[in-house]
Design brief:
This protein is α/β, with parallel strands linked by helices. The chain folds into three domains: 230 residues, 3-Layer(aba) Sandwich (Rossmann fold), CATH 3.40.50.300; 100 residues, no CATH class; 234 residues, P-loop containing nucleotide triphosphate hydrolases (Rossmann fold), CATH 3.40.50. It is built from 22 helices and 20 strands. The strands form four sheets. The protein has a six-stranded mixed sheet with strand order 6-7-8-3-9-10. Strands 16-17-18-13-19-20 form a six-stranded mixed sheet, with helices on both faces. The protein has a four-stranded antiparallel sheet with strand order 2-1-4-5, with no helix packed on it. Strand 17, helix 18 and strand 18 form a beta-alpha-beta unit. Helix 3 packs parallel to helix 5 and helix 5 packs parallel to helix 6. The longest helix is centred in the middle third of the chain and has 24 residues.
Amino acid sequence: MALFAFEHVTFRYPGAARAALCGVDLAVEPGQFVLMCGPSGCGKTTLLRHFKPTLAPHGAREGRILFEGEPLEEVPVREQVARVGFVMQDPDAQLVTDSVWHELAFVLESLGCDQRTMRLRVAEMASYFGIQHWFHRSVDTLSGGQKQLLNLASVMVARPEVLVLDEPTAQLDPLAASDFLAAVHKINRELGTTVIMSEHRLEEAYALADRVVVMDAGRIVIDGAPRVVAEELFRSESPIKAALPVPVRVCATVEGSRAAASASQATASASPKGNGQADAFASETPAAVGRLPLTVREGRAWLAAEVAAHPPTRRALPDDGAADAPPAPMAVELEDVWLRYERDGADVLKGTTLAVPEGSLFAVVGGNGTGKSTMLRALCGIARSYRGKITVLGHRLRDWKRTDLFHGGVALLPQDPQSLMAKKTVRDDLEEMLAHRGLSADQRAAALAEVVTAAEIEPLLNAHPFDLSGGELQRAALAKVLLSKPRLLLLDEPTKGLDAAFKERLASILRQLAARGATVLMVSHDVEFCASYADACALFFDGGIVATDDPRPFFASNSFYTTAASRMSRGLFDNAITAEDVVSLCLS
């Protein structure tokens, strides 16, 4: 008997033009690790929330959801809480107490456990997840990775049979995300806990799963083992294939190109009538071979064999440095900036120094809690430094009038896009940005149409912002920020919740802004995005910038803060930091 069974489940939000879920049939067996993926707004979060009735969205539902053969809504609430755990995307959204130890005990207190049981389980979970060293700390002092690990531990303390996770690594840096996924994998393998997780960042999560479920427009379109699903995505030329791990994409592209070239040669040498063999070979992809590498380790082994079998003409790519280019004026300059939030608190910025050229796309990477977001807040005056000099768009920050600074000057897309949305519909939020600009009705309509098209949010205009998925909300907030026509755009985790297709669209938008002379300063954990599109990258550590360079030398020289393509090709190729780099060298 399946642990969970969805039978023809259809769900529609109140007032929605289309259903969020359309005839979903899904059975989850005990002990499985199920990974759900798909474009933003495809219904992943809506589906996951139906696994736990207390979190189920408001709306009209048809079909049945069974838990061990019993209708889920008939399972007692106490049993639901104890047996099904849920970890949300935002680490702060799930914390309910002020200290780590109390957070661990909260669920057990709610379930009415006795003191002895609580002490034993809390101690066991703290030790299992390595939390004992910060057991007595306030949750406010934890990094994003620590908060998410605490959320996982506080759910697991109830010993659930099912663990549901909704994009749990979206706000974690690469190292914290890797640690978190390792903990989830350990829970699944060692404790036998069933894991159902949605993710856009598939680089590490994909290989951990027993089964991958791909959704699109509220429907399940592919369901199977990870390699089988990857092969199917490439055969169908699905846009979702761009989100697959780098080893998968490199292998499929290289072998597909070689197969196509061989088929072309066979066709050219065949008789006019032919025998169909060339056409059959042309359609063959790595899917027919069934050996796509899923991990960096498997990718390195495949790449070593590929290089040995087909020696490339090049083994390195040149640095992208622009040493001979004339120096550009600076849009942002921080000189020895120090900042703390409380008079007696610890410094968050510690002598931060940074210069960002005008018209550039500048990326800052680094761990959770190092001060990156605080730096962005300091640049627009939301957080005030007590020492140092901040220059924005040619003027000292302290000399700017706030009305001038935020009208065509600086715009900030914060890490929590929900904080920007204050109206009942997305359209109202966007129109609010144009209300006091002195524009005619036609000018307002044209400006609105431009950002709506750019952010691809036409179907979302009449929706309440809080009803949107994480990726949809991110796009709506981006559109609102773009309406201010900023000369300096500050982005805090702009790719969070976005699918691979819209990441490419976002890069195009940012490139267009830079071409018009605007400057983009982006803080991001998405090293793949930064490597592909940034003009320069900097590493933020312990309250300051410790290194700045062009993307290729920056990521090629790093061991951990680097891309999967760099790790996969190191020692075989030099300066290859993206999947496209590795493919170009393989086929050179």
